[in-house]
Design brief:
The complex is a heterodimer of chains A (about 260) and B (about 250). With about 260 residues, chain A is mostly helical. Helices cover about 80% and strands about 0% of the residues of chain A. Chain A has 10 helices and no strands. In chain A, helix 1 crosses helix 2. The longest helix of chain A is centred in the first third of the chain and has 33 residues. Chain A is globular, with a radius of gyration of 19 Å. Chain B is an alpha/beta fold. Chain B is about 35% helix and about 25% strand. A 6-stranded mixed sheet of chain B has the order 6-7-8-3-9-10, with helices on both faces. In chain B, strands 2-1-4-5 form a 4-stranded antiparallel sheet, with helices on one face. In chain B, strand 7, helix 6 and strand 8 form a beta-alpha-beta unit. The longest helix of chain B has 18 residues. The radius of gyration of chain B is 18 Å and the shape is globular. The two termini of chain B are about 30 Å apart. The chains are: A mainly alpha (about 260), B alpha/beta (about 250). The interface between A and B is medium-sized, with 32 and 35 residues.
């Protein structure tokens, strides 16, 4: 991998973000809107003494962390779909740029964008709802890393599918993470799910991150169990995503889909 | 030989897009690839670029196999076609800067300015791609194609959207690159007069097969099966399309 080529991909997507209002909306608007809406909901609940303060923190913390996961996965896939929309794939891949370099560049850009959204949402949660995420960060960061790791695996798998099925399946870029939300236990503990869904939730790295986050906010400290479960599952999903991506990319090249551009 | 294509075939399901094609390109040569729509020209170019995996056959460029040395080979070659595009919200300069970074150019802005001037689009430097005409877009593609000063250039109908004056300017730029830097060029076009002027040798494809290789006059005589003193590629083309060639 060559750094200058990764840098070229980063620059390409930064230029795009600067000039495309949709990307700004994705990066800041949605995370901020989510936190504003859920924030008012927690204000309503806490004013009526319906909930303990930790539950309010869990809701706000859950929204911020879910936003991080969702944005990262979406931006990975949308970043790639952008190349299809503007018929730029042939230009890019008729250069020495490798797929690994392209993905590394895109990943870096997505991390930067997620950080912007995270800072904006956290600032609003702190200013408007007195939820300060900063003291929790040392314990949250390992869970957030697991969320991003899983988002990366999903982003790679979805990008692979887009290589093969092109823009026909572009809705997956926005919709796939939502499919995982019920079993990721973002707003509620895993124990609230029916038994058969709990079994599914156990194999979701996201569910372990949110369970871990709730334990931290409940004052029970960092949960190595949920962290390591998340890491183990992520290693498996990441390996599967890489193998799947390599296989589907070769299949797309073989069928001439890389040059179809639609 | 700078490029060797041996027994190259590509089958999509049961359609033979390219069927056992072989040809070579000498260093410093401008070779034309002709054929009606669907003859397999673009698929062949895409296989040479490694964008499509051949069903069978071998491609060797700079003495190295494309299958195993793709990255190394692509450092020294380039490609453009008016049918591919650039991110349309980015300006011409921003798009070209991205490619300048990919090729790790030391003075990217100076190189870009030089190329914009060569293709007569300096005034478009800060314009978004979305606001360019097809012909202007084609010229941005040519700037991209010359970015790394390639030893081998693959051009798929590079003058398709250009008016005669600009097309003439582009052809001169290509001939100059070949003359001064020894750039090897593989050129496809539907403009027969242009091919006659530009190319010393032609590969004629039809239904995915090579039906003739040679100079424009050799192709004319071979496919019309008669003695001619001047090349008549347009007549050849029409006869091939109508299935009346020799």
């Amino acid at each position: 991998m060559k750094l200058h080529r990764i840098n070229a991909v980063i620059v390409r997507h930064i230029y795009e973000s600067r000039r495309n209002f949709d990307r700004v909306v994705d990066m800041i608007w949605w995370p901020v809107l989510d936190i504003v809406m859920w924030g008012f909901f927690t204000v309503y609940l806490s004013h009526s003494n319906r909930l303990q303060p930790t539950v309010v923190s869990c809701l706000l913390g859950g929204i911020i962390l879910w936003g991080t996961f969702y944005s990262f996965q979406r931006d990975m896939a949308v970043g790639f779909i952008d190349e299809l929309w503007c018929r730029n794939l042939i230009n890019l891949f008729s250069t020495p740029l490798t797929l690994a370099e392209y993905m590394a560049g895109l990943l870096t850009v997505c991390l930067l964008k997620v950080m912007v959204g995270l800072v904006a949402a956290s600032a609003i949660a702190w200013a408007a709802y007195s939820f300060d995420i900063v003291p929790w960060l040392p314990n949250f960061i390992p869970y957030m890393a697991n969320l991003l790791f899983f988002a990366l695996a999903l982003g790679i798998a979805i990008t692979g599918m887009i290589f093969r099925y092109t823009t026909k399946i572009q809705a997956l870029a926005w919709g796939f993470a939502g499919l995982l939300m019920p079993v990721s236990c973002v707003m509620y503990p895993m124990s609230s799910l029916p038994k058969w869904l709990q079994d599914i939730a156990w194999v979701m790295p996201t569910a372990h991150s949110f369970e871990g986050m709730r334990q931290v906010l409940d004052g029970k400290g960092f949960s190595p169990l949920h962290f390591w479960w998340g890491v183990g599952l992520n290693v498996v999903y990441f390996a599967v995503a890489i193998v799947f991506f390599g296989w589907i990319y070769e299949k797309a090249r073989n069928r001439g889909l890389l040059v179809k551009q639609e | 030989m700078l490029v060797e294509v041996e027994n190259l075939s590509k089958t999509f399901d049961d359609f033979h897009a390219v069927d056992n094609v072989s040809f070579g390109i000498e260093r410093g040569e401008i070779i034309g690839m002709l054929g009606p729509n669907g003859a397999g020209k673009t698929t062949t170019i895409h296989m040479i670029l490694g964008l499509i995996t051949p069903t069978s056959g071998r491609i060797s460029i700079f003495g190295k196999s494309m299958a195993t040395h793709r990255g190394e080979i692509l450092e020294k070659m380039n490609f453009t076609s008016p049918y591919v595009a650039f991110p349309f919200r980015l300006t011409v300069l921003e798009n070209l800067l991205v490619f300048a970074r990919i090729y790790n150019l030391k003075k990217p802005r100076a190189r870009i300015d030089e190329l914009l001037e060569r293709f007569g689009i300096t005034k478009l430097r800060d314009k978004a791609i979305a606001r360019l005409s097809s012909g202007e877009n084609t010229r941005v593609g040519l700037c991209k194609a010359f970015m790394n000063d390639p030893e081998l250039l693959l051009l798929d109908e590079p003058t398709a959207y250009l008016d005669p004056e600009v097309a003439w300017q582009v052809k001169n730029a290509l001939l100059e690159a070949q003359r001064e830097k020894g750039t090897t060029i593989l050129y496809t076009s539907h403009n027969m007069a242009e091919v006659e002027r530009m190319c010393k040798r032609i590969v004629f494809l039809h239904h995915g097969k090579v039906i003739a290789v040679g100079s424009p006059i050799e192709i004319t005589q071979s496919l019309l099966d008669e003695e001619r003193e001047e090349p008549a590629l347009e007549e050849v083309f029409l006869r091939v399309v109508k299935g009346k060639a020799a």
